[in-house]
Queue: 4 jobs
Job 1
Amino acid sequence: MTTAPDRPLWVPCGGTALEWGLRNPCPVAISTHTHTRGRWWTVWCLTCGDPYTGYPAEIGERHHHEDDAQHAARLHADDHEGEIRRFLASARHAEIREKSGWTTRLFTLVAAASGEDPDAVVWWDGSGYRFIPAGARYGAKGRRMRRKVVELAIAAGFLQERADGDLVATADGRAMLAVWRHHRADLAEPWAVRHEPQALPPLPGGQEAARRREAARQRAVELERQAAQSRAEFLRRREEAEQRNQAELEAARQRRADEQAERERAERARTGADIDLTWSAVDAGRWSVTGTGNDRCLDVVLNTTDFASDMYEIRENGHFVSRHPYRHQTEAAVRQLLADGVEIGQRTPGPTPAASIEAGPSEPAVRGHQAPPPPPFVTPVYGPRSVEQRGEPGFPPTHPATCALAGRRVAELAVRQKRKRLTGRSCTRQDEPTGCATTQNQSHREHRGASTVHRDHLQHARG
């Protein structure tokens, strides 16, 4: 079984490396030596040792107490860690100076507001800030500072404006002065008028940066709260819309179902589908059919002689109604008759009485008598037409005389159209004999004479 070694291999005599949780691995360790004269502890440093052989260097004297060795090792490790911290701080300050965007005038303004330079003063004259540099004459008002520069310093958290108008440097401003104190030669020139930046970056890790981070966090929390509220409101409205839509769909579905049920009920009432029929046999091939809720009685006779197949004939009060080849069609027809509610003929217990003598041939029979049957329909037959009957109305379109008249009119129309194409002018039917040679070069008198001759020829041709 292998265990993690608690002693680094580079420590002589099996020493123990220090573990103080420093930012970088600690190169310092302590080893214990035992001798006949006693016991002592030695401090070793790998960084200070030989870089070629990798052997550590012994730091200081040997210690007879372990606490002294621990204290000496801690001081030596802090020296190495201090070098690393100083290097990192120098690199961090260089990065801050590079990104700060400070100018010489801004440095003198913050330095005067911090009180580090007692001879420089920044004061409020009621209309703006004035800066009196060190070495100015007594009673000088100083030069006016641009309001834009002061606003940039206040917004970045380097200056703070009091109620009386005085400016005071903040902790970030004093820290920025410490960063620039030994590098004032690297400061940029003052900004030109109306060429100031929109904003200055705050000090990294400063109070203004922390305040902005907290404000950003609070804004993020507020935005998340608003987003959660908006989501909840959206879900609520969507749920209400879905419920409303479902209610509308259900209402429409119920309405369609009711309409369909009403249509089916009306159809069943119209066709009599709910009527139960009772077939009572009268004799062979004849039945008396009645329906529930109806006092009418219809006779159904099976006709097996007059047709190629058996037919069910429906009669009411001795009158023929309809004929069907199958029984289910007969039942449907009987239900339809009973549902219509119109009784055919008159119920008579005995034979049909004769019609009244006073009733003429065109008058209906009196009440209680049957009307005579209508005369049979006879299809009219048209014979050949004579010459005198040609052109008379009243004949069907397919009659030979009508076809001849239509052909003659088509021929006359063709002659008219041909004359119009040749002469470029339209003329009447009297001016359209076959072979008319009138042209546009003829005068009106010549054309009138030719038209008269052609009209005579046309009348002679028509007979």
Job 2
Amino acid sequence: MSTKKESENDPKKFVSKTPDDPRLTVLWSTVQSAEQAEAIAKGLLQGGLAACVQIDSPIISLYVWEGQSCSEKEFRVVIKTTRQRTDQVIDWLAQNHPYDEPQIVVLPVEKSTPGYARWVAESTSE
């Protein structure tokens, strides 16, 4: 017999697409150092703009910038928030990011468990 908590987090029971359900987004960005990544994470969390920010171990980014091929060690920042907070997160990142042209990518969350979606919404509510 399952408890209410277990059934709420059953991966087979995903958030339905009704206007009352919190819609989530995940944003990605990158920075040069773990310290920069932590500063971004702390700022977003303290401002109530994100429920969770994950910092990936160093990754290698290969890209062309101003005509030059580049290979840099970076730290990926993965930000979980609601659709309602997404524009505020983008604005905050644009103002506080150390890069001249930061990567800010937004991905809509197609499905999540109801308990997780509720937690994100509660964590980012104004």
Job 3
Amino acid sequence: MNIVFLIDFINSKVRKGSRVFDSVIDAGQNRFRPVLLTSVTTVAGLFPLLLETSFQAQFLIPMAVSISFGLMAATILTLVFVPSLYVVINDMVGIFISQDDESGLSEIESS
């Protein structure tokens, strides 16, 4: 869910006229703390279950481990990979659009 807020924040800054790279940097700075705190508190809430030794908890410990490590991996992806991918995709789209514009103009001018 954190990634939705991050992308929405980037998109809203771009709609207001900011450059994409600046929007991604600003979104990373503004959303870093909420994303990190959400993940840390969830993992911290599952930590007592990881330390439990009772027989009943033995069935829940694998679930708590998978949720904790999955959430940590998703947090890293949210804070590092997705903003980087957003900039790369935007650059690629810009390259393809400029190539399409150049080829379209030459066809119109030759007519």
Job 4
Amino acid sequence: MPRPLDIACLQTRPMPDFKAALNEALPLAEAAVQAGAEVLFLPEYCGGLRSQGPSFAPPSESEAAHPVLSGLRAFAAERRVWIIIGSIAVDGPDGRILNRGYMIDDTGGIRGRYDKIHLFDVSLSQAECYHESATVAPGDRAVIHDTPFARIGHTICYDLRFPMLFRALATAGAEVICCPAAFIRRTGEAHWQVLNRARAIENTCFIVSPCAVGPIPGGGESYGHSLVVDPWGEVIADGGTQAGVVHARLDLDLVEAISKRIPSLTHNRAFRCTATEDVPTRHHKRRGQWEKIMSTDRIASATPDIQEGTLHRAIGW
């Protein structure tokens, strides 16, 4: 039996405060519902985003008192629609915030939470540096949201550069993986589409990546081009460079059909990494990272890690 799913990415602009963020998102959400969307996807930091030097400084509040979270929950309940809040800034430990995403059901209930694991600490040039971990505490659990429509894995922005996370989610049964983002323009122009297509192809699943668009208060610019990519790697929707609603219909039967043609998820194999002793000097620094990250006791397919409980399946918690 066919399994179509009508979705919409809300391509919002970065806003400096809660009120402006809600005023940006709610009209787009209403337009998406009016057009028939069953699930809405919002970008990273859709509750507000500012920058302060090399750090992100989004407006933050506790989960219980967060006005953007409560506003979107109320909208979901009123309009009977599911919403993936890409992420908002939530008060966290040690004075830092959590870059936290939510799955909201059509009664306004919180059905799942995901805290961004990989933080954007990069130096693109002497003039353009980012240090997300200065203000954000990382998460440590991968998350799949079980919904009536599909199993949806949740990642955020910089996570897109870590294929092992996407592999773990797909191996655990995710048919759709969302990657809400506020991707900066410079890296977006070079890498955004190719990374999204690669994650879809590698894992034979849909990738849905709503991305903020436009200047970030305090400095910087988000790339836009919210993407929906099918399991064959075809881009079926691209949001371009203006704020708005990006509609797509997902044919969820494609996930099984393409997985049968290229069953790479069933071909995961454990392996060991070795390096010769006479590595040229120019490779020494990267080799050190290899030895740190890829130690033999950690080399395995995604499946054993999931069985050990590092993947959290979000069902009504």
